[in-house]
Prior knowledge:
Blueprint: H1 3-10, E1 13-17, H2 21-33, E2 37-38, E3 51-55, E4 58-62, H3 65-70, E5 74-75, H4 78-94, E6 95-96, H5 98-106, E7 111-114, E8 120-121, H6 127-130, E9 137-140, E10 144-147, E11 150-153, E12 164-168, E13 176-180, H7 195-210
Parallel strand pairs: 1-5, 2-4
Antiparallel strand pairs: 1-3, 3-4, 6-9, 7-8, 7-9, 10-11, 12-13
Amino acid sequence: MNIEKEREAQMENLKVHTRTQAETREVVELFFELDSYWDAPLGRDYLGADFVYATNKKLTLGYDYHTFDASKNKEITLEQLRNPVAEKKKKKENELTLQQAKLAWANGEKLQIDSGGGFYDLTGDYCLFAFDHPSNKFRLKPKTITLNGIEIPAIGTDYEQGEVIWILNSLEPKEYSPLLLDVSDELPTYWWSTEEEIKQVVAALRSAFFHA
């Protein structure tokens, strides 16, 4: 199972405890971004709803803590829900239309293709037929840098306020963590746009350290 498929599986059955009506609305909108939908085609009254459930992508609201506590859905925070939505938007922004992909390929750009199982480099004879399938997705190959002979994603650029970024953090068990900056915060020198990228960076650093 690739990283994207694994993340989708983890997103299926979740629950979030909200503390204001505004938070409840935001949580619902974030779940919508992840392709969730109402369990029944009815209008929803957010007033008084302190809990949001996403079960097999079906959304329901809750009003009772005991029910929330007993639910087997995995509990996550609002901040944790923002992260995959930000990643999804970032990936969507990087995708090319068919015409853009053809032009980029003609100009010698390195492309990646997703025909249903995740993005991989577009190389070899398959290039001749890749553009004939309208369901294929294309993107420019992410820029990389080399560390100890290992290619890793290049540090982030074009930061936008409100974007969740990922940084190295030796105090965390995974050795990285998400970061949401306030307007007054200084942008770190080294940061990456997605969790998938920071995972590759950590893996490369571990490899470099243990094989030095």
